[in-house]
Amino acid sequence: MVVPIVDREEIWRVLRDLVAIPSVNPAFPGGTGEAEVAAYVRNYLESNRIRCIEQPVSEGRSNVIGMLPGTRAGRTLLLEAHMDTVQTTGMTIEPFGAKTASGRLYGRGACDTKASLAAMLVVLGTFARSGRKPTIGVHLAAVVDEEYRYAGVARLAQAIEAGELRYEAAIVGEPTGLSRVVAHKGCVRFRIEARGVAGHSSDPSKGVNAIEQAMEIVRYLREVIEPGYEALRHPLVGPPTHCIAQIEGGDAPNTIPGACTLTIDRRTVPGEEPLGVWKRMKTDLERFARETPGLALAVHEPFIIDYAMEIRTDESVVGRLAQAVNLVKRGTAEHGAAYGTDASKLARVGVPSIVFGPGDIRQAHTDDEWVELAEVCAAADALAALIANYGNEEGEEETA
Length: 400
Ligand SMILES: [Zn+2]
Hints:
The protein has helices at residues 8-20, 35-47, 110-130, 151-161, 210-225, 274-291, 316-326, 343-348, 373-389, and strands at residues 51-58, 61-68, 76-82, 100-101, 104-106, 137-143, 169-172, 180-184, 186-195, 199-200, 241-249, 255-256, 259-268, 297-299, 304-306, 309-310, 334-337, 353-356, 370-372. By secondary structure, the protein is of the alpha+beta class. It has two domains: 8-184 and 308-389, Aminopeptidase (3-Layer(aba) Sandwich); 186-306, Alpha-Beta Plaits (2-Layer Sandwich), CATH 3.30.70.
């Protein structure tokens, strides 16, 4: 079908509206939740006569899914974007001012990821108003809680796994500068506790200093574990990494510390199972403790795990999206990313997923977050072309 023209003014208006509505994740300072944005999304879709369902996730927090039917039953593309943002602490602009200047729109969430959400919404609205159905059906899932615990996409993935919803591919909206993230890392985060023996610090020989034990662990991780990462290097996302992100230890200035806890953020590459990575590290650390006189430690269960993701480059959505983007911007590419997204949770339930959207990831979570309006429009044009052409090629002529 002919690619419908997406109205720039409408994209700007919807993006301004979305940014002006606070939707800070409730896990963060000043967190208001996503309810008001969800109501806006629902109202936009319904006023364009697009059927909507809500997926309750937790008290007062629901995903909204808009459903644009296609002419070919059983084929559906998923567009997914999160509605929550990080906190506004320390911002140097009005977080919800939604001011525009020099072609940019400023505010919390402008780039991450309300720009993607606005582009997706207006594309769906445009198709619905055009009165012509695309070959492929399209669902837009606006989800909660991407910035903290991924509860929104987890609920969506559950419905997919249960067979209530079926998608042949997904585009996950995040600021990629219109490039396509086809692989990204996962993570496993856990704590390692060095266990010493507390005592009066006037005679350090009478105790076991847990902070000094923790130093041994840090050294072991750097000198023995880290060099093994290179062999696991992935062509798109690079090698695994770990970061000792937090350290806590000691009770008082005159006491030999009896405990010291390290928090590790280990980033995984596609092919690594986060829980398996944790188990291996636990085994290695326990062996190290047995071989090191005086060292006692405990490796705690992970408190966060997230999966890495990778889409096979011969999945048809990869080429289709590249083609659609090439119509609006030259020089974009497929690449890997070190950060995590909702895409890995969709990939885990069998939906080939690509991360794509307007804006630069370097602008996400910043003190003066902004997005280039022209790029939001280009993303919308690319999504419109993707949908209009999806399933229209050889032997797949429209049936209605
Ligand atoms: Zn995001």
